[in-house]
Amino acid sequence: MTFDEAIDALAVRSLLPTTGRTADMRQFDSGIKQHALWSATLTSINTLQQIGAGVDAILRGESDIATEMLAVKQSLEAEGYKAPEGKQGTMLDLTSIIRRQTIIETQVNMARGAGWHEQGMEPEVLEAYPAQELFRSATPKGGPEAERDWGARWIKAGGPPAKGGRMIALKTDPVWENLGNPELFPDGLGNRWAPFAIHSNMDLRDSDRTEAIALGLMKIDTPVTPLRNGFAQDLKAKPAVREQWLHEAIEDSGLASFDAVSVLHFSGKEAAA
Predict the structure, then answer these.
(1) Shortest CA distance to 27 belongs to which of 183, 177, 174?
(2) Model's pTM, two decimal places?
């Protein structure tokens, strides 16, 4: 069985080649970023197509991370890509292992996260499991020293007081919007679902109605209204229409513009990271 909601979350993204860096893209609102498939300084439409096809294959159970990492490298090499001088092997090198792994894993995880969010907002699911818990699923890349203080982040994001160290809130609580908000946290991805930040290995799991009531998050008769991501509805529009909407939204922001071959450039000097 395919994860249809995750596939929809990927399919709704239009390819967005750009000379901009991550800090540039963080200036856009979540509506733009959730409808764009991009990677910092990646200007090749062919490689973006390869990434999209590869992630789709992974979501369908037809491929894996390693295979698609290799495909990205081959695509870049076929186009004659050269890493910036002195940056070979780093995150600024599109062909480096760490960069290719980050690209594929992040796209897969964001699509799955959006899919799980949509499934969790089904009325019957939300009725039974109205809350969710933020937890660390694995040690982050870089080891324990790379761990961020998610307890402090939870508080800053406005989450309910942690119970026994557990960070749990209703699925409709604003904390989920805030945890990935780049205006609050520089590493935020702009999602209201996991991953909220790259390389965090922080994930979500359902919390049932009985626990939510016991924790004081809701009363027995508290209604919980679904918050849809709307991707299935967006897919009713043709790809060209969705791409036009994305381009218009970006240009209306005044932050960036497109050149003759639809590569996105940011106004003024682009960010250094």
Answers:
(1) 183
(2) 0.91
CA-wise closest residue to 128 among 167, 161, 171, 164: 171
Buried b or exposed e, range 89-105, using 16+ CB within 10 angstroms: eeebbbbbeebbbbbbb
Residue 210's SS3 state is helix
- Tracing tokens 């002195």 back to the chain, one arrives at 86
Coil vs helix vs strand at 208:
coil
Tokens of 52: 């999209």
Closest CA to 114 of 3, 215, 15, 22: 3
What is the spatial distance between Cα 7 and Cα 60, in angstroms, rounded to a whole number? 8
Give DSSP secondary structure letters for 106-137: HHHHHHHHHHHHHHHTSHHHHHH--EEEEEE-
Q: What is the pLDDT of residues 121-173, one digit of tens each?
A: 999 999 999 999 999 998 877 666 567 899 999 999 999 999 888 999 999 99
